[in-house]
User: Fold this.
Amino acid sequence: MSEIVVTGLGVISAVGKNLAENRQALINGDCGITDLSMFPTRYAGLRPCGEIKTDTETLKQQLLAGEKGVTRTSLLALQAFDEAVADAGITPAQLAGSDTALIGASTVGGMCLTDELYHDANKKSDGSEYLAEYDCSSPSLYLQKRYQVGGVINSINTACSSSANAIMYGARLLKHGLCKRVIAGGTDSLAKFTINGFNALHILSPEKCTPFDKNRQGLNLGEGAAFLVLEKREDVGSRKIYAVLKGYGNSNDAFHPSSLSDDGIGPQLAMRQALLEAALAPEAVDFIVTHGTATENNDLVESIAMLQVFGKPPAFISTKAHIGHTLGAAGAMGAVAGILGLYHQEAYPAIHFQDPIEATGLIPLLHYKQQVLKHAMTNSFGFGGNCSSLIFSAL
Amino acid sequence: MYIHKTNCISAQQTFGNIDLQTLAPAVENKLFAKEPVYEGVPPGMLRRMGRAVRMGVGCALPLVKDQQPDGIIIGTANGGMEDCIKFLNQIMDYEEGMLTPGNFVQSTANATAAQLGLMTANRKYNITHVHKGLAFENAVLDAMMLLKENPGFNLLLEGLDEISTYNYNIDYLDGWYKEDLTANAGLYNVDSKGTMAGEGAAAFWVSDQPERALTKISAVQQLHTEDVAAVSSFLQHFVKFHLPEGTSIDILIAGENGDNRYRHYYEAAYDLFDTATIVRYKHMFGEFGTSAALALWLACQPAFPAHAIKQRTDADPKYTLIYNMYHKNQHGVMLVERL
Assistant:
């Protein structure tokens, strides 16, 4: 059976508007968490976020996206999608073919437009231009329409693990011969909706977040988008391959709507399933890009789960200290970081870590290293107990 | 993929003692679901659930209470949106002051799948597809792939959506619903734009085992287009590719919804399958993103009510084609075989 390989990557986040900038930021240990400066909320200055410092109008111009009703969430998706498609050398004719699939993910959709949504939903207006854009399928539908993508189109929302599941679904479509290439990933933009929601759960940190640190105070929200192009190895020809998608796993923690079980059964099961699918022993994994949101609950549980599965976990980091928690895009963001490390044979350092969690004593990788990396795992655990794990391997 | 058990909550009597003969009327152009008394859900839990989650959980629970599924696969177009907007209203009304997170936590589209996993302590594959008018078709495809990957698995597959006040307002402003009061019994005869809103849930216990199955889903596919010629070609090719040699479509279940602007897609389907019995369902269940789930439930029933039959032929009902179009560019088809 032909391997599933990554032939294109596209990403935009608070630390860079493209793949090269994001890689450099990971090498440097740049932090994109700042006070909100472009976003109207009473929490600007109180809750730092991974904000992309380009306003929506400018994004529209840069991306030549003058379509009526296009939202910031869709624009971020467009940026990452365009980069990934160009990176993989996919032509417009191929995009429009019935053998090209597009699997997107978003938890915010067009709900970033709080005022418009409020007025439209409460019928306090004649209807804004965004009426069809509020739900989570709107970024995928926007991309499909703009490029006339001709194959299976889907959108997934499993909260924070959405884009990891999108990548998994895309890979399976390829394995079943239901497409020849798939662009899979996710997007989310900052929204009053998520800022207030996470704040009401008391898990937003008033400081820059510190994943896996014993004094962590919660997460920082972020915005961004990331897409992978996946194909079967036999279809790639002479084009470049970043990595192999070796295994994946999806399981449910079945414990609580918004927190993980003490032993992290769901996370453990997802990781074990990915290892099984990849036919790898835990020791074979060289690097983990964790979910690592810096909440009290997640980082402790994720640490316990990693200890259970790996005994002695490999080098690991969370990129949420760099770009924040990008929700629907988080799974794909983690995947990009893992893939870049494998492709360039380098391990990126964690940032903002000082002291380990006492119960587990785990310390993330603290210094950039160029080294042999064969297999990298990336994990995403979402509200509703949705746990997903992906394993990529170097060629 | 074989369907072994089904359950359905809708505006009609599709739950418990199923009676489709009597057509329950729409109220102010909305076909609200008749919710049954939900068994097996603690009242405290029911109270905390938004309506979409309640219907989704209530519809699926009877199918999973005796046996754990090896996966929970849900499709919903706007499940959770009601809670999203309730939370949003709080944000606006209280100017981002101290808010309670209940609505926020319930507002994720995966809340139904999560609740089902939680209530049955099910740690298996759990996913929610939200691709609007093709959310259910993607869920079906996911289930079919999962069964090929894992022979012998049993899966819970479900489609659900609710008429949330807010979504109704948004879709109404976008011109999707009738402006004048319309009787659902005459939905296809009124020559005007728009349709009527519906809601419901249809759940299926599926596996790759044919013994004692009700129906077989042979294939599912989707197409994004506004071009009617492309739709016609798509339907022809789908049927030609998946029907066994020497057979034809005996029943066409069509998602015609009374919106005169988009009738041409369905008319193309009627032309292609003019020797089939043609059944319509949106006068019964209304229009919503995952209505194809209820069409699939209907395809599993032993007979169709007279009011749903557009034309009847004597064809021995073996092969059913379900064709649905949502919001003018999302087209989904399923080929279903009676056993």
Q: What stands out?
A: Chain A has a mean pLDDT of 96. Chain A touches chain B through 66 residues (CB under 8 Å). Residues 4-235 of chain A form a domain with the Peroxisomal Thiolase; Chain A, domain 1 fold (CATH 3.40.47.10).
